[in-house]
Amino acid sequence: MIELIGTNAGKVWNALHEGGKMSLKALKKATKIKAEKDMYAAMGWLAKEGKLSFEKVGEDWEVSLTE
To answer: What global pTM score does this model have?
Structure first.
C-alpha cells in the first residue's frame, strides 16, 4: 500500500509541476487516479512533506506545489 501511495504522490507532483494550480477534479483527471481515497492519500503524503498548498475557491479547492 505504501508503494501505491508513493507512486500516486509522484503522479500528483508531476501533474502539478507540469500544469500548475488545479482544482481537485482537474488533478484527479490529470493523474488518472481512479479512487478518491488513493488521490487523497497521495496528496496527504505530499502535504505532510510540505510540498502542497491548498486554496479555497468558492465551493472547491485548488492545489498547487509550494514554492
So the answer is: 0.93
